[in-house]
UniProtKB/TrEMBL annotation, chains A, B:
<dbReference type="InterPro" id="IPR049046">
    <property type="entry name" value="Beta-AFase-like_GH127_middle"/>
</dbReference>
<dbReference type="Pfam" id="PF07944">
    <property type="entry name" value="Beta-AFase-like_GH127_cat"/>
</dbReference>
<dbReference type="Pfam" id="PF20737">
    <property type="entry name" value="Glyco_hydro127C"/>
</dbReference>
<feature type="domain" description="Non-reducing end beta-L-arabinofuranosidase-like GH127 C-terminal">
    <location>
        <begin position="542"/>
        <end position="657"/>
    </location>
</feature>
<feature type="domain" description="Non-reducing end beta-L-arabinofuranosidase-like GH127 middle">
    <location>
        <begin position="443"/>
        <end position="534"/>
    </location>
</feature>
<dbReference type="InterPro" id="IPR049049">
    <property type="entry name" value="Beta-AFase-like_GH127_C"/>
</dbReference>
<dbReference type="InterPro" id="IPR008928">
    <property type="entry name" value="6-hairpin_glycosidase_sf"/>
</dbReference>
<dbReference type="InterPro" id="IPR012878">
    <property type="entry name" value="Beta-AFase-like_GH127_cat"/>
</dbReference>
<dbReference type="Pfam" id="PF20736">
    <property type="entry name" value="Glyco_hydro127M"/>
</dbReference>
<protein>
    <submittedName>
        <fullName>Glycoside hydrolase family 127 protein</fullName>
    </submittedName>
</protein>
<feature type="domain" description="Non-reducing end beta-L-arabinofuranosidase-like GH127 catalytic">
    <location>
        <begin position="13"/>
        <end position="431"/>
    </location>
</feature>
<dbReference type="GO" id="GO:0005975">
    <property type="term" value="P:carbohydrate metabolic process"/>
</dbReference>
<dbReference type="GO" id="GO:0016787">
    <property type="term" value="F:hydrolase activity"/>
</dbReference>
<dbReference type="InterPro" id="IPR049174">
    <property type="entry name" value="Beta-AFase-like"/>
</dbReference>
<keyword id="KW-0378">Hydrolase</keyword>
Length: 659, 659
């Protein structure tokens, strides 16, 4: 196994400049980050106050008042700062940096002498630090602030927040550990584990990595910390006045604390907690070359992505606990598929790529990115889905209580705290997801086809290249080498699953064969400056079938083209969409509509509609099939899933009945 | 509109003797009633105590102790007594009658001087009578006891319980009414309204009918009683320590109290409450010849049975509030379709038949009876479904919290109080559902084809007849007249919707034409003793389609034969059942299997199965349709829905994909 150095292990060396993605990144920079800043400062008139900045001012002694917001409110400030860090790395902005520096001052002032930092406990429950890890998100908030500190340090070179968080991490390391006077515990919501690995990579301090490993290895060990802690607290809860019984095994599975992490092989419980934890596990497996942990990651990856993932890259199919349910249980209508969970899946995929470059990880990463994640955001960047359904019947969302959680329209984003900032920090750090490289193996892996510039330091020397991509509309991608060393290095181009193995390669205009390794086209040679690799995986519209065990998709097809899943909307196809069907061998016609939804590919096909006109108004609802007229011919029209819900409210479906 | 006198308006004149139904009725008599008696007396070792009889002993001053069970625990005693009454009417049993007489003694002793009777308020909250109609089921319990009193009086001629309940009704009539010193209120759970009509019909006392009408007409009037009452009670609740806000309009819809009853046109809210209320409305429309109320009944009937009813006769599609959701929202997997709701639908259908003899009402009555209702009970009579699903995936019932309410196996009946006694009282009074007759119009309507003897008093004179039926296995039904008057009367035979209008009639072996009116074959003549009418509606197995607006059934077919809906079980067809499909014109082969499930018709057909073998273990869950092999041929096997779940636990589905 090669050790692979992340492009993120140092200041970002990739800069995105891509027709498709520039708009998203600009939306985050120009709209989401400023808007969120207003929200954090309670300056949006129609919104519930956030209290997040005010909490820090109170904790810093600059203001009097009570704690406001959720117990994990600090994490909103952290996620904003992290997104700012990523954004500044790509797009310097002196004013934004000054604002961020001010917030960092405030955070530093809110830190206790001993390093402790959490405004909820500082303001509201000063005597209760570390007594309710199960519920209080104390280490979770710490983790997000560590991630912010690292991102801001990489972007600006300023270490103030990094120093604050190192001090806090040192404090945490004194509180938690295997010694008799230490807590053998971990947080109810995983997050600090992956953050500590980042802190380790930014500082080189191994003790942070060790602390992450401690948290991972303690989780699920006997006697169960979360059970014992609840007993010690006499069941006191921050969510209810009722005293809680210690969590059962089923309840512990919600926190992935039902059994030791290394022994887990099925994705269970709260999906976001799960993928944040798997991300840290993959990090640790890589950094410490821990094969047992790597094997656990592979098992969990396989279970999650092969048996519990929607075609859109959504995970966590039930809203009860925002959780995984079980293998192949992927209902399209009562779905959850939270935005944050897919973002966490992308984190995990990237860590798996760092651990071992297999195209399968990038395939899933791309699927989640191009569908579930960007589909969660409206075109104006101000409305978001938390739940990303594959089938919507607006009346059911309103009137069937079992579907209230499935919204037919994106919600104003200030009403909710977790998903929009997570989208912001992912999109503003998207440059980190395009490549990985292995210095020792002299190999650059191109995982995503997103245009921009990139620089790599290999054993062979420095490489600089420029990628131009027309995805998701056309697949022709061009890599031009602007700086190359004198000796051999390898360019590994992902053969995306969607091309069905058909991908043409040209070097300087001349077609060339290539060797394939783990799903990548391998080109090893001595390169010349100006060399140009043209990579054209076949981009065809196709009908996709689901595994027969996924009951919800039986007899149905999805339409895919390249990384994009398509869907049918009522506005294009009428309703009920359930009455539509398509032949299994239907010809799919692809065209680009420059006027529609800011310009998009549309896929059309001949299909059928069950004839509702043949049913008299107020007819009995059931009648002999023999009386049913043959369905009538219709023209079906599908748009990319990520664009749904940007026109009139109506039905939407990804899966379409086949004939 | 003819006034039609119910066969129930007097001691029962119909006695069932039918190969199919005898078994059910005997099960109720021999198993359910004795078992329930043990339960009411806390004598079932493994069961939670009921406390129901003990509560009466405490209220009667015969025992010390605290109230036990639910606030509506008295109704369990009432439902048991009512079933006993119905059973004694058909099958005298001196010991059972002695037991019932003893219970009635006890009830009489628990009655207060002023007529009040309710053990919860007597024992637990003596000062709080009539202060929480919204939650406390006080009039609901009274209603059930009135129904018991009437049934027991008809069965035995003994009026002790009837007198107790008349006295209680008189007390209620003094408390509730339009006068300033009276409560302008009604119960949160409708039931007393239909019971008061029964009390009126048994006693001839119009004030009971007037009181029923008062409750019906006050419901939903402004100012809303349930809102005002909650305010007067300062939000105190018997379900929670929290103070309740007055109910919103949406919450009032749960109790059908969101608008005046006469203005309602859509079935909303808790399904059992709804159909109990509609039953009383139809009664009152008939008794008082109230056309406005009749029109409301027709509207509600039409909405409910044409847009909110499952093919099994199940109603109330969501478990949230055990309620209706909205038109055409009939999910098969997250279904509720409570047993009691279908029983209430049968009550309502029978009242509509009394109001106007249209075969549509009987079609629905038969559908609910032969499918949802008898399907709720296991073959041993000791296990019951509350929720009657049309699609079951046992693992999902266990592991997807949104489907926990859908059980894959019937539950031991003592764990639950409402459905089993309701099944018992319906089946033991099934004789009341077979016919209605109109004395003035000299017409006997045969609604259900269930064998037995019946006597009718028409203006023309006395009629006695014997019905022999082979349903649901064969449709040939024979009516033999054993006593006839000298002048003309009419025999009206329902043309069931399932025969598609094809039904042959013979008189004494000679084919005869007939006139059709409102879905009945009309035969008016002067009859001779010994005349024999043979009625043979065509009984064919067929595939049934659902209205295209029912999204859940799109592209699917159900298999029906006569009154029976069929289903596929895993034990016969493997799993996943979702991978199976059938041609729209498949030939259905019918055979009787005497060994299977006590003897049943089985329907077989050629079908297709998506090939799961073609998917490698651990393969990615999505792949091009083009790689999907053609499905393989299989032989499908369907059994009657009412028999499902009596073999190994497994998947079940009513709706099958069509090709």
């Amino acid at each position: 196994m090669n050790r692979i150095i992340s492009s993120q292990s140092g200041r970002s060396a990739v800069r995105i400049d891509d027709e498709f993605w520039n708009r998203f990144i600009e939306l985050v920079r120009g709209t989401v980050i400023p808007y969120q800043w207003e929200a954090l400062n309670d300056s949006i008139p129609e919104a519930e106050p956030s209290y997040a900045i005010r909490n820090f001012r109170i904790a810093a002694g600059m203001e009097e008042g009570a704690f406001g917001g959720m117990v994990f409110q600090d994490s909103d400030v952290a996620k904003w700062l992290e997104a700012v860090g990523f954004s500044l790395a790509q797009h310097p902005d002196a004013e934004l940096e000054r604002t961020a520096d001010g917030v960092i001052e405030l955070i530093a002032m809110a830190q206790h002498e001993d390093g402790y930092l959490n405004t909820y406990f500082t303001i509201k429950a000063p005597g209760e630090r570390w007594t309710n890890l199960y519920e209080a998100h104390e280490l979770y908030c710490a983790g997000h602030m560590m991630e912010a500190a690292v991102a801001y340090y990489y972007a600006t070179g300023k270490s103030k927040l990094l120093d604050v968080m190192r001090k806090f991490a040192d404090h945490i390391a004194s509180v938690f550990g295997p010694e008799p006077d230490q807590l053998r515990g971990y947080d109810g919501h995983q997050e600090i584990e992956l953050a500590l690995v980042k802190l380790y990579e930014a500082t080189g301090e191994e003790r942070y990595m060790e602390l992450a490993r401690f948290f991972i290895d303690e989780r699920g060990a006997e006697p169960n910390f979360l059970v014992e802690e609840t007993k010690r607290r006499d069941g006191r809860s921050i969510w209810t006045d009722r005293k809680l019984e210690p969590p059962t095994l089923l309840q512990l599975a919600y926190n992935q604390a039902h059994r030791p992490v290394r022994e887990q092989d099925t994705a269970v419980g709260h999906a976001v907690r799960a993928v944040y934890m798997y991300t840290a596990m993959a990090d640790l497996a890589r950094v410490t070359e821990d094969r047992e942990l790597r094997d656990a990651c592979r098992r969990l990856w396989n279970n999650m992505t092969r048996k519990q993932m929607y075609i859109t890259g959504g995970i966590g199919s039930t809203h009860h606990g925002e959780a995984f349910s079980f293998d192949y249980d992927l209902p399209n209508d009562t779905v959850y598929a939270e935005t944050c969970a897919s973002i966490g899946l992308i984190f995990f995929a990237r860590r798996m790529l760092l651990l071992e470059a297999k195209s399968e990880y990038a395939d899933v990463m791309e699927r989640a990115l191009y569908n579930n994640v960007i589909g969660s955001m409206s075109q104006d960047g101000k409305h978001y889905f938390y739940v990303n359904p594959l089938e919507v019947w607006p009346e059911a969302s309103e009137r069937n209580p079992g579907r209230h959680h499935v919204k037919a329209t994106r919600q104003k984003w200030f009403g909710c705290s977790c998903c929009p900032p997570n989208v912001a920090r992912l999109l503003s750090s998207l440059n980190d997801y395009v490549y990985t490289s292995s210095a020792e193996a002299n190999t650059i892996y191109a995982h995503l086809f997103i245009g921009g510039e990139a620089r790599f330091t290999l054993a062979a020397g420095e490489v600089a290249l420029q990628q131009q991509s027309l995805l998701p509309w056309e697949s022709d991608t061009r890599f031009t080498f602007t700086a190359v060393p004198e000796s051999v290095f390898t360019m590994a181009l992902r053969i995306p699953s969607w091309c069905g193995g058909s991908a043409a390669l040209r070097l300087n205009g001349v077609p060339m064969d290539y060797e394939t390794r783990n799903g990548y086209a391998i080109v090893s040679r001595t390169w010349s400056q100006g060399d140009c690799l043209e990579w054209a995986p076949e981009l065809r519209a196709q009908l996709t079938a689901a595994h027969p065990s996924i009951r919800a998709d039986a007899g149905k097809a999805a339409i895919e083209r390249g990384p994009l899943v398509f869907c049918l909307e009522e506005t294009d196809n009428g309703q009920p969409l359930a009455s539509l069907s398509i032949a299994r061998d239907a010809e799919l016609q692809v065209r680009f509509d420059a006027e529609l939804l800011g310009g998009t590919v549309v896929i059309e096909a001949d299909g059928y509609a069950d004839d509702a006109a043949a049913w008299q108004e107020d007819a009995p609802p059931y009648r002999p099939m023999a009386q049913q007229p043959a369905s009538r011919a219709v023209r079906l029209r599908a748009v990319p899933y990520y664009l749904w819900g940007n026109r009139e409210t109506g039905e939407m479906t990804v899966w379409l009945r086949t004939q």
